[in-house]
Design a protein that fits this description.
- By secondary structure, the protein is an alpha+beta fold.
- It has two domains: about 1-75, Orthogonal Bundle (Arc Repressor Mutant, subunit A), CATH 1.10.10.10; about 80-138, 2-Layer Sandwich (Dna Ligase, domain 1), CATH 3.30.1490.
- It is built from five helices and five strands, in the order H-H-H-E-E-E-E-H-E-H.
- The model has no long low-confidence stretch (mean pLDDT about 90).
- The chain binds zinc ion (2 copies).
- One zinc ion binds near residues 61, 75, 77 and 81.
């Protein structure tokens, strides 16, 4: 079974994961805390530890450019994903990139650089924000 067993999560991990799932958008650790405080998880150390576990399980991804965390849409997965970050609304789309990464890694390898980890973020406008610039709704 490759499926992550929810019972394998700690209580705090479960609470933090539920907060991220209900948000459906990236949350900073402090935003997560607002959701989890009613559940009794209110210490930054508890939040960070739970996030570390969830990232380790690949149920949650850290979005570096936002310093925030996003629940994985594709869990459980072994594939690499790119993260398209909207500069308009802060929405992040997880895009599985599959074999596309291979070409990039081969190009990097020609420089002699040994890649250890990859994390790809792209910034731009999501479909809704792209529309908004045309119609100026709201
Ligand atoms: Zn993912
Ligand atoms: Zn947007």
């Amino acid at each position: 079974m490759s499926h992550a067993d929810p019972s394998a999560l700690t209580r705090n991990e479960g609470i933090v994961l539920a907060a991220l799932k209900s948000a459906r958008r990236p949350l900073s650790a402090y935003q997560i805390m607002e959701h989890t405080t009613p559940e009794g998880v209110r210490a930054p150390q508890q939040i960070y530890r739970a996030l570390q576990g969830l990232v380790g399980h690949r149920l949650v991804h850290r979005i570096e450019s936002l310093n925030a965390y996003l629940v994985c849409d594709h869990a459980p997965h072994e594939h690499q994903s790119a993260f398209a970050v909207c500069t308009g609304c802060g929405k992040v789309e997880e895009v599985p990139i599959g074999k596309a990464l291979g070409g990039l890694l081969r190009a990097v390898a020609t420089t002699g650089f040994a890649v250890q980890t990859t994390h790809i973020e792209l910034s731009g406008l999501c479909a809704a924000c792209g529309e908004g610039t045309k119609t100026a709704a709201g």
